[in-house]
Write a structure and sequence with these properties.
With 414 residues, this protein is of the alpha/beta class. 46% of the residues lie in helices and 17% in strands. It contains 14 helices and 17 strands. Strands 3-4-5-6-7-8-9-11 form an eight-stranded parallel beta barrel, surrounded by five helices. α2 links the parallel β4 and β5.
Length: 414
């Protein structure tokens, strides 16, 4: 199925990062440090930024955290990390932003949840306080509805109306409508309070794939505001990756979504930057953006009992990710490059020819020779224990020739 035309949303400028309009889908992430721990939070933001996160959200839950935000911003600026910071507020955001104006200024965007911004008669007043502070400082707001903390008054009203209807809807459908209405009514109120539409981002997060697709499809059809996509509480490991990818891919295939986050639960002691890598790989796999050179490698079978191709593919892929921050500066366009590391003669030569540079390693019983293809043409045959190292050197030489000092090969011909 062809990719549908991108939904045209109102563009939002987040300290120089554009969401919506003609801008590409933006990758963001969130820290899991105690924001009051300035050193730990600054380190993690820097790591997420180096991994490719274009926006980073931090928790602002109490006075100590709010006081730390401007210091963290200053620390990051000194490190040369310009990635905008988003403040995540629940329950007491109105108080923290008012009491700590330096925090309000240091943040590029505020994330608030209409389900817990305030309760009963305090809800409207406290929501208005945050919106007015955002407008005063020229900041954007993400109105982030989450079905785990949905406005219960709204949900109860819609459930009661549904019960009286001639043809009642399923309770799940009513839940979807409550989530969408919560976002839309809150955005409408923010505009009434003086916040411009180009300062508003909406999200409507749930934790089940089909529910997420349904809710965002409804939201996209009823609003032209920028949308943040994410499956909340996605889970750990492959479960979280698969569920998030399944939901977000369907929506982005329909042209829905201006920024995404993959909300993975890290393994104990795991790397927080994995969520950034998954988001990038999802966008790149769908052909929406390019972040790093693609390394294609065969899965292996009975013809590939040697682990050489697996080790080489892993080595090159890890090396590429480590080098990308520097390569992006030195070799513009290198992220569009493709590399193939194949394991036998069946598909090896063909796949290698399709890549910018590829190697076809010998399978079981094959002659101990590994042809290398550059821009579709065979340029060398590597042999012996140094073949893997020699190919890695050829990859580096290719990058330097093609992206360092002008165009060569296939790109030059184009």
């Amino acid at each position: 199925m062809d990719m549908q035309a991108r939904r045209r949303s109102v563009p939002v400028d987040i300290a120089g990062i554009i969401l919506g309009g003609d801008a590409p889908v933006v990758v963001q992430s969130m820290t899991n440090t105690d924001t009051a721990d300035i050193d730990a939070t600054a380190r993690q933001v820097a790591a997420l930024a180096r991994a490719g996160s274009e926006l980073v959200r931090i928790t602002v839950d109490r006075a100590e955290a709010a006081a730390a935000v401007p210091v963290i911003r200053e620390r990051l600026d000194i490190l040369g990390v310009t990635t905008p910071l988003i403040g995540d507020f629940h329950y007491n955001g109105h108080t923290l932003l008012e009491d700590y104006p330096d925090c309000a200024v240091a943040l590029a965007k505020y994330r608030i949840n209409p389900g817990n911004v305030g309760f009963k008669d305090k809800r409207d007043k406290q929501f208005a306080q945050i919106v007015e502070i955002a407008a005063r400082h020229g900041k954007a707001i993400r109105i982030g509805v989450n079905w785990g903390s949905l406005d219960q008054d709204l949900l109860t009203r819609l459930m009661d109306e549904n019960a009286r209807a001639a043809s009642p809807k399923d309770a799940r459908q009513v839940m979807h409508e409550a989530i969408v209405q919560s976002a839309l009514l809150s955005a409408e109120r923010a505009v009434e309070l003086g916040l411009l539409a180009n300062k508003i981002v909406l999200s409507a997060k749930v934790s089940a794939v089909q529910d997420l697709i349904a809710v965002y499809s409804m939201l996209a059809a009823r609003s032209d505001l920028a949308l943040h996509l994410g499956l909340t509480e996605a889970g750990m490991g492959s479960k979280g990756i698969v569920a998030s990818s399944a939901a977000l891919a369907v929506l982005m295939q329909q042209g829905i979504g201006d920024t995404i986050r993959i909300s993975l639960t890290p393994e104990p002691g795991g790397d927080r930057t994995l969520e950034v890598q998954v988001a990038q790989e999802l966008l790149q796999s769908m052909g929406l953006r390019s972040f790093v050179p693609v390394v294609a490698a065969c899965p292996g079978c009975g013809r590939t009992t040697s682990t050489t191709f697996q080790e080489l593919a892993s080595d090159i892929q890890n090396f590429i990710r480590e080098q990308m921050p520097e390569w992006k500066r030195r070799y513009p366009g290198v992220e569009t490059m493709s590399v193939a590391v194949m394991g036998c003669i069946v598909n090896g030569p063909g796949e290698s020819k399709q890549a910018d540079i590829g190697i076809s390693l010998p399978g079981t019983g094959e002659a101990p020779a590994a042809p290398v293809f550059v821009d579709g043409k065979k340029v060398a045959t590597l042999r012996g224990p140094a073949a893997a190292a020699d190919f890695k050197t050829m990859v580096l030489d290719y990058i330097e020739r093609r992206f360092g000092h002008g165009l060569t090969g296939r790109t030059a011909a184009e």
